Amino acid sequence: MKQRIIKIAFFLIAVVGLNVLASFVFFRWDLTREKRYTISDATKRLLQSLDGQVVIKVYLTGEFPAGFERLERAVQETLESFSDYAGSNIAYRFIEPNDPKLQEELVQKGLIPTNLFANEDGKRTERLVFPGAMLVYEGKEYPVQLLKGNQAASSEERLNQSYEGVEFELASAIRRLTLKEHKRIGILVGHTKVPPPRFSDLLATLQQNYDLYFDVQNPDSWEKGDMLIIPKPDLPFTEEEKYRLDQFVMRGGKLVLFADGARVDSVSLEGTFAQPSELNLDDLLFKYGCRINQNLVKDLSCAMLPLNVGNMGDKPQIKPMPWRFFPLINNFGKHPIVRNLDAVYTRFPSTIDTVEAPGITKTPLLLTSQYTKLLKAPVLVAYNEARRQPDPREYNAGVKSVATLLEGSFSSLYNNRLLPNDPHMSTFIGQGKPAKVLVVSDGDLLVNDIDYAREAPFPLGYDRLSGKTFANKDFILYAIDYMMDPEGLITARNKQVTLRPLDKIRLKEERMQWQLLNLLAPLVLIGLLGGAWQWIRKRKYAA
């Protein structure tokens, strides 16, 4: 009897000790194959460094189909994990937005609603849901859209892509709200003829995370930033400017170039002419490992444009027609920048080839479809091109890259070129530090349209005809985030959760037997265990 009391006492002490230890030492054990409940190290560092409370209001709650319920659970599980690392600095609540005034307020703040269709009692119903959240920190608010992914995918796949992106979307929004020190990005606007309002949407977004400065052909200022962006250059670079760009990269700077291989501007009665773009950067890019070709890509996967297809009476007949010079990019390389990205809208892109560059990793990011045709500049872009029925046999150029990421320690273009008495020799760097260069062969990819009626910019990637906003801005922001901090929050986009759908045919045929198995098997198991326990007791005490 005494030994039994001692054993019970030891057991109680052990239980209490474990509970006390658990209150001081935090750990979790994720047994899932994809580590779906494990957040990235960068997210943990962000949460542990918070010095104030972030309030997260989630509006994705209510009676939903299974896919949306799964996304809601993913948000709740992610926020629970956030609270484990941030403590009281993360507070969240779920709000069902049934009030029309609240719905209108959320739309004004930037949350995009989704129409959800369902069948209830044989009737088709429609309701408005807000798959998003609003983050509040020190009086500032930031909307987060949680329903993302590629719209060309099925609804199940898109919801799964959104599931995979929950951690990144919430963590990056927290970083935007709480960031104290901003890195610097230089915008080289001195070489473009595009007016500033056409860049306004991207610049306004970048200002939330970075300090921007604008160069007007002042190479002395280029070395002051962490990144240089060259948006749609039209004017050639001088040798001195090219040298400054080269040395910026040699010092470990990040360079982003959005440049056309062929310039489409001159107009004739038959159409517009595409002329080779002369920027004096070909040898620099070739040295770094790529080349923008002086051609145009025609792609059967393309956007639509409203064109005059003839007259009906005395009035022109306007119809949307496929414009194969505006490819819709829905084919991506394997990289966290473009993982689960929606389609990207391009205008007159050129192809990018990679060339040998020792020590440089080349990753294609944006790829055309396999049904492409290449036109070498100079070439006429005829107005009646959209009316012609394309012959698929002519679109046999295959998949082409229109955006390539270069990473590594670059060698200078000016190695063995400078004379000993050259004034640049005192500061010249021949072999660079690890750096990154992003080359995009479409200068219009980061140019937004303008709503002249409201005198306000449209969102970057917005298509007037379809009313859809493509993922141009997401692509640019993800690329910049990765280049600025490759081991940062962007790594959370690598999370992959495999869909394991049930076999619907077997489910329909074997539904009853699986229901009976789930209902009766636990009862039978409990009965067997109880019978075995009674038999052991009887045998023990009968002896």
From TrEMBL:
Residues 183-477 form the ABC-type uncharacterised transport system domain. It holds the Pfam family DUF7088. Residues 34-135 form the DUF7088 domain. The chain crosses the membrane at residues 6-27, 516-536. InterPro entries: ABC_transp_unknown, DUF7088, Motility-assoc_ABC-rel_GldG. Keywords: Membrane, Transmembrane, Transmembrane helix. NCBIfam families: GldG. This is Gliding-associated putative ABC transporter substrate-binding component GldG. The lineage of its organism: Bacteria, Pseudomonadati, Bacteroidota, Cytophagia, Cytophagales.
